[in-house]
Amino acid sequence: MKFLGSHGHEDHSFRRNDFQTNIYLYRSRTFVMMANKSLSEILGIQYPIIMAPMFLVSNAKMLIAAGNAGITGAVPALNYRTDEEFRAAITEIRSKTKGPIGINIIVNKSNPKAAQHLKTCVEMKVDYIITSLGSPEEVIRQCKPHGIKVFCDVVDLVYAKKVESLGADAVIAVNNQAGGHAGNLAPEELIPLLVKNCNIPVISAGGVGNYAELQKMLSLGACGVSVGSLFIASDESDVSKEYKQACVDYGAKDIVMSTKVSGTPCTVINTPYVQKIGTKQSWLERVLSKNKRIKKWVKMLTFVRGMKSLEQSAFGASYKTVWCAGPTIENVKAIRPIAEIVKDLVSQK
Ligand SMILES: Cc1cc2nc3c(=O)[nH]c(=O)nc-3n(C[C@H](O)[C@H](O)[C@H](O)COP(=O)(O)O)c2cc1C
Q1: How far is CA 51 from the centre of its chain?
Q2: What percent of the chain has pLDDT over 90?
Q3: CATH code for residues 38-236+336-345
Q4: Which residue among 50, 55, 105, 159 has the greatest number of ligand 1 atoms within 8 angstroms of its CB, and so is best to mutate?
Q5: pLDDT of 195 above 70
Q6: What is the pLDDT of residue 259?
Q7: Shortest CA distance to 240 belongs to which of 185, 313, 328?
Q8: Domain coordinates of the chain in residue numbers?
Q9: Ligand 1 within 6 A of 75 CB?
Q10: Cβ–Cβ < 8 Å for 255, 270
Q11: Which residue pairs from 77-81 have beta carbons closer than 8 angstroms and sit at least 24 positions apart in sequence?
Q12: pLDDT band at 315 (very low <50, low <70, confident <90, very high)
């Protein structure tokens, strides 16, 4: 197969591998080439894959391993308790891998640290930022002059158009197979919808656990993918052995959506403890979170309490196990180094 440059001519500067993602879509009996730059090209990486930011799970070791395996990793700024720790992690990653560094900033109002996180990212000149759960406006405004790329999580076309108009460099299309706060649309619907209607590249998040699924998202028009759950059971993650082993032992059928954790629907493994506490907020919690005068505080309290229980489950050896993961743990057969996970993901069997 020939790979054409973004202006339609044969481009010999491209590395010729399976992941050249100038995509031909068969539309109205003509092949139309999408002006969709490959993520490899955008970030200068070998394979068009982001190891997705995962609250509590992602760390510097994982980003270094990802960078050295030919992909790139992103870490939530919230995974660091202090600004000093956050800065030290960026410095360490930079010293141990040449790969680009990505940081996830939760930009909604329940994150009081967002402004400081952004300031640090700009000062430390990270390579790209992934925004989630709110408006990326301020992040884009501050990052643009420094050449820091901003990729924004979106779940539908309306929001994708909004972030595009604000100047986002790419959208991350979070589909209904994603781990964490999943979207509502299937990748088959979401990716072509955004590719057709947006003028910025579309990165797909959710449902990639093997080579065939990676190829599927690329052939739907994504310029790259963001993969999270597959990397929880990695040697480099600091979460407990029990959490990692659960990703090996449980499969896609064991993933349920729970609002119990943070108030927002989130995918969790259906452990006996999750079955015991249920996946829906109680009647009282629902009523309180709708009360006009106190809902802000109730939501914040639910969020903080949920994060605490996730943290205890992720690192502790308690029977109260609320482990966040998506259906792609179906593909996890052992706890392994990130280099091996990546090698498998990019190799046709
Ligand atoms: C354990 C876990 C924690 C996550 N934490 C975050 C987070 O802090 N911020 C964020 O933007 N997305 C978060 N996500 C979503 C991922 O960034 C990504 O969109 C998702 O993992 C892709 O779907 P996949 O798990 O099927 O690969 C999380 C996902 C998981 C599984």
Answers
A1: 7
A2: 68
A3: 3.20.20.70
A4: 55
A5: yes
A6: 85
A7: 313
A8: 38-236+336-345, 251-324
A9: no
A10: yes
A11: 77/103, 77/104, 77/105, 77/113, 77/117, 77/120, 77/121, 78/104, 78/106, 78/111, 78/113, 78/117, 79/55
A12: confident
Least confident range from 22-31, 161-170, 251-260: namely: 22-31
Burial (CB count <10 Å: 0-12, 13-18, 19+), residue 68: middle
Locate all alpha helices (DSSP H) within 97-240, ordered by sequence. Answer: 114-123, 137-143, 157-166, 187-197, 211-219
Pocket test for ligand 1, best of 49, 54, 111 (most atoms within 8 A of CB): 54
Bridge pairing between strands 224-227 and 128-132: unpaired
Structure tokens at 282: 């109680």
- Nearest-CA residue for ligand 1 atom 13 is 54
Instruction: Tell me the torsion sign for CA atoms 108, 114, 118, 121.
Output: negative
pLDDT at 93 exceeding the cut of 90: yes
Q: What is the pTM of this model?
A: 0.86
Look at 70-79, 204-213, 312-321 and tell me which has the smallest mean pLDDT: 312-321
The more confident residue out of 289 and 104 is: 104
Distance 100 CA to ligand 1 centre (A): 19
Q: How far is 289 from 222, CA to CA, in rounded Å? A: 37
Higher local confidence (pLDDT), 212 or 34: 212
Confidence band, pLDDT 50/70/90 cuts, at residue 15:
very low
Collapse the DSSP code of 30 into the 3-class scheme (helix H, G, I; strand E, B; otherwise coil) and give the result. Answer: strand
Q: Which two tokens stand for residue 314?
A: 């992720």
Which atom of ligand 1 is closest in space to residue 132's alpha carbon?
11
Cα gap 163→336, rounded to integer Å: 36
77 in Cβ contact with 122 (< 8 Å): no
DSSP state of 166: H
Higher pLDDT, 302 or 105: 105
For residue 9, the model assigns a pLDDT of: 31
Predicted pLDDT at 285: 67
**Atom number in ligand 1 closest to CA 53:** 17
What is the rounded distance in angstroms from the CA atom of residue 204 to the CA atom of residue 317?
A: 34
